[in-house]
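Q: Could you fold this chain for me?
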Amino acid sequence: MKLKISAILSTGLLFGCLAALGPAALAQSAPSVASEFMLKNGMKVIVKEDHRAPTAVQMVWYKVGAIDETNGTTGIAHALEHMMFKGTQKHKTGEFSRLVAELGGRENAFTNRDYTAYFQQVEHSRLEAVMALEADRMRNLQFDKNEFAKEIRVVMEERRWRTDDQPQGLMNEALNAAAFVAHPYHHPVVGWMDDLQNMTIADIEAWYRRWYAPNNATLVVSGDVSADKVVAMAERYFGSIPAKTIVRGKPQNEPEQHGLRRVTVKAPAENPYVILAFKVPSLRDVEKDQEAYALDVLSAVLDGYDNARLNDKLVRTDKVANSVGAGYDDITRGPTLFTLEGSPAAGTTTAQLEALLRAEVSRIAKDGVSEQELQRVKTQLIASQIYKRDSIFGQAMEIGVMEMSGLSHKNIDRIVDKLKTVTPQQVQAVAQKYFTDDKLTVATLEPLPLSGKKLGPPPGPLR
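A: Sure. Below is the predicted structure, expressed as structure tokens.
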């Protein structure tokens, strides 16, 4: 298994299998540029027209997530997400999902460290109906004690299934708690169990009243739609909802780390595992933060395609690992980590694999990467970006994540352009600069006997 420490979506390079496509084929699938509007109440509306199929995706993104929680309130963003399906003054519990299904659509929601989002995908003529439903629960959510009592038990069971009963969940939780001692990324998105057990319906309602407002939300619509008509509908359904004064908490900045940290997790598992997490910069300024692009490319050199360095060397050639990986989440509201991870093969210890993973980065720091290797990575990058945009849901996701991070959807193509300019020297420079003990947290899984217990599938997005 390959463990991931990021939640919901990684917005670094997504390397696909379309590298063989020529420029003409790639250009044919490029959708239109997104249009942006602002309602008088401060709600941003972004429309990405794509007329290749008669469907539409609506997403409402609230700029509030686990990053906005404090001690004692962890998990509340996710708990409210569950309650958003529990009825309004107009629609009873369960009616929202039933109505979307009757329209032939699909719907869901997800909570991340940085945001909470709700979506529906429907036949394009049904967009107005789901927009009316979404606007209703932005303004008129009901808070029933009995429904909350049932739903918070669902959330706690979700925590048990995703974390308490999953070695990868326990490991990710312990890693983040060790890497971040002050920043809210210390806390799991699902929340600590004690906080969930002591959460009240009043807590949930207060969170809703504080954060769920049009001026803290972005409406993203993609698909076979007209931007002018979408904006007119948004004005009709969302425009009358009053803005609120959004007061964000005091900064909970992470102090400087001054030495290696280690955490060990003992849990029933089939194989040991190790994750190395280095503190590195995230992308804040699209034009200036060249190191973030170099780190993205470094991640791809190590683990961006089938024959990338980690897998080729440690799994296929030397056979010292069953699986390996590298990851870098560059677009976040808070600090970020660059991870190296893997499961050692028989005869290799986690300590030995840890050293071997670091050796691959050290090799790049010493010898660099060739222009040929870098060009191969960039070809994969261009193809993967086009592949993402072949999905109207993927387009809406990309726009929403950019907006929630403060980078603006208008910079999506600019980021691709900047990635193309990364040089071998810049990749070598970040490999030399950031992969030291002083910024490193290591999490190790020591497997306990399974005792006949079968592990479930890896956890997916929180819902």
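A (continued): Residues 1-30 have pLDDT under 50 and may be disordered.
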